[in-house]
Amino acid sequence: MTAILGVDLGGTRLRAVLSINGRTRRFEVVCPPREELPNSLRAIVRRRKLDGLVIGARGVWTHKEREALRKSVASLAHIVRILPDIELAWRAAFGTGAGVVVVAGTGSIAYARTANGRSARAGGLGPLLGDEGSSFWIGKQWLKTRPEAEQRRATVRSIAALSPKALRERPRLATEAAAHLTAIARQAAARAGLRGNVRISWQGGLFTHDGLRRRFLQGLPRTFKPMTPLQTPEEAACKLLP
Q1: Total domains, the chain
Q2: What is the pLDDT of residue 59?
C-alpha cells in the first residue's frame, strides 16, 4: 500500500500518522465529535483516497460499535480497520508476546494479554464510574477545593485539562494517581492470568509527568518488568496493514 493513515482517537486529542510512499507526516488536533470525524480526517489527507485507514478508538468494544465507526469513514479508504484504542496501545508498547499496558490520559485503563492471546482489562469505566488516576480524576480532586461557580462550568475535557496545574499545586495527587494506576495494572494482569516476570508499559499524556511516572514504576511489584513503549499508537496503527 502507498497511502495509509494510522489514527489514535483518544478522549481529548486525535493523533495521526500519514504514510505516503514511505514518507510520513504527523498530525495532532482536538478530538472531534464522532459525527465530525470523517471531515476531520478528510482535512488531514486533503481529500485523497487512502489505500488503508486504521483507527484505534475509545468506546468500540463490540463488533456493532466498531462496524458503526467503520461505516462512517468507509469512503475515505479502500481498506478500513477499527480496533479499541487500548488494544492499539498494547500493540504499540510490545508488538507481540505478553504484557500489561496502562493508558492514562483523559481516562485510565489497563490491558493485559498473554502469549496465547488471552486478554483482560481493568479500569476504563469512564468519568462517572471510574477513571481513577487519570487526568480527569486529578483535575476533579483539585476542582473540589475551588469555588462552586468554577465547578458548575466544568466539563470532562476542561476538568482533565486542569491536571498539570493540579499536580503543580498539590504534588501529593501524583502519588495518589500513581497508586490507582498501579492497582489497575495488577488487576488486569491477575485477570489475564499472567504469572512470573510480567512486562509492563505505559501510554498516554499523563505519563509525561516525570514524578507521576516515577511513582507509578516504584509502586509496581518486583515481578513487573518496565519496558518503554516501542512506538506511539498512531505509528503502530500505520503499520497494521501490509
Answers
A1: 2
A2: 83
